[in-house]
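User: Fold this; tokens only.

Assistant: Input:
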Amino acid sequence: MLIRATIAAARNAQGLLYDAQVLAEAGCAARAYSLASLAVEESGKAASLVLLTVMPEAVRAPAPVGRLLEWHQLKQAEGLLIARMPYRFRQVGSWLGAMPAGELEQFMTALDAPTDEADRLKRRGLYTDVGRGGRIWEPSEITETEVFSQLARAEQATSAAGQLLEPETPDWLADPATELVELARAAVSALTEARCAARAPQAATNIMLIGVSKLQDHMAAKDATGTPVPCELRTRSTSHAPPVHHREGLTPATEVWAAGQTVPSEHR
């Protein structure tokens, strides 16, 4: 069932992107932005369903599935993450596990602004809002530049999620790489520990950072001892996590994001 749901989410993400492109071409910029944002979210949901699929049943049963699949900012951030994934989907655990700590923090921080923008403008593309001081925000205020930028992110995210539509997907989901399984464990651990966290964009990227840090701790422990560590990842308190914000400078990974470049197709 989870494999079918994963594939369905990836297919729906592509449908949302198509509808967004049709609306953009018809001059319906605000609605196009909203659907493009939803396409990124649905790609992120597909990524979450991958993690749910590959994790052991003992981990999945108590997992906060609702937060994993219903937290909009978290799905948006996950969609943006896979949009910048330079490897095949099945290798995401190995890629994140090997990323240097400083580069990882900067990479996650680079997701904050586009996640926040998409979360705000997605709603603004559909509704009229009244802000502080009586400021009225209307969908028509979304700019062409904002629409094109979000469409580009959606194209990258749905392209990555589109790998899940390939015929071999059920096979590797049924027999996943060890690093992908451990990433799933780490994600559940981080999300469970942050059960009371506010559902905000920066909170979402912070949880993702903590989860990958847990994965790296786990892999380092295995490398150091040469034997598997206990099945549950050791607790890594959010209070001890490296800061997610207030960092300067970009490493090669975040330079790609900032420049808005598409990952070469040969690396997909």
